[in-house]
Amino acid sequence: MRSYSSTMFTNQSILMKSKKTLFNSLLFAFAFIGSLFAIDKPLKASDSGPVCPDPSSTTINSVFDESDPSGSFVGLTGGYGEDGGGFCRGTPTEYGVTVFKMGFCTKNPGNPTGSTILEGLKPDYSSCTWAFENTAGEEADFGAGGSIDLSEVASSEPAAGVYPHAVMLISKDFRIKGKYGPIGGQTFYTTETFEESTTDVTKWKTVTAPLTSFVGPEYCKATTEGEVVLGGTISAYLLDTTGTMLVSDSSATGTPCTGQEYLLGVMNMSSDLIISDTTSGLKMTFLVTNNGMSVITKNNPGTFPTEIIMDSGPFSVTFETF
């Protein structure tokens, strides 16, 4: 029996040993892929976006000021042209998801042939081996530099094999607590209300960030594939309460997604993970710093943005057995 424990959530490599099942720590492979796309980012901003300026070493005078491009948040994150700024990647203080399944597959269950996404159908899990299953879901909340283990009773040892894909089924809702600043002397904090922030630290709360679509809430794009991260590429699929993949809306006017309940994350690893009877442990390198939180200007109709809001962002992990 291979069994291990986990310590995680910093940019480091960790050796898993002692009393927990090997894949208890795989939670964080996909915890961050979801709500990067959950709210509208500035027009034509890159999906990956720049790393946020460090306010401790960079003076940021305002959220938006075209006359001060080197001293405003928008100017420092892309400028004021057609592909303007207003979006960057930061580090969350706390993060959480609800986990239902995780494990490994020889084929991508959302697109097993590599050419046909199974929208409107249930994913094909026939090539998968599960290391964690909990039909009720298990909440996992953690902070930077922290650690967490999923319950051992729901964990099992995966089958020996060669696996190109790491797979996770989680909730569509993410829990995030974050801050950014100072900007013009003010630091912005998450509140209990999604897409809102506060400059009053006493009102700093964890917010639930729902994933509604992969292009923003007004249009239903239920799948995304081939998002490049260190260690491979990530694909993600929205599922309804029955576990069926939603169908994207291809109309010109756009229709919001409805019925989404789960998020299926699939990481196509750059190097296959080999599990055998002689496998004694797993080394995983987690990347979250400057990547796990989206920092975004809040739309202010009719005038320039003056507020910063925060959402979750992507996360990646690499694997090596020993």
Entry summary:
Helix content is 1%, strand content 37%. It is mostly beta strands and 322 residues long.
User: Based on the structure, what is the oligomeric state of the protein chains?
Assistant: single chain
Compute the number of structural domains.
1
- Along the chain, the helix and strand elements come as EHEEEEEEEEEEEEEEEE
**pLDDT below 50 for ≥5 consecutive residues: which ranges?**
1-47
Tell me how many strands there are: 17
Helix count from the secondary structure assignment: 1
Roughly how many Å is the radius of gyration? 20 Å
- First-last Cα distance: 14 Å
Fraction in beta strands: 35-45%
Relevant terms:
322 residues; mainly beta; 3-stranded antiparallel sheet; 1 helix
Task: Describe this protein's structure.
The chain is mainly beta. It has one domain (12-321). 1% of the residues lie in helices and 37% in strands. The protein is built from one helix and 17 strands. The chain has one helix at residues 73-76; strands at residues 12-15, 87-90, 94-105, 128-143, 161-171, 173-177, 179-183, 186-190, 197-198, 207-210, 223-229, 232-239, 262-275, 282-287, 293-297, 308-312, 316-321. The strands form four sheets. Strands 3, 4, 5, 6, 10, 11, 12 and 13 form an eight-stranded antiparallel β-sheet that branches. It is globular and about 60 Å long. The two termini are 14 Å apart. Residues 1-47 have low confidence and may be disordered.
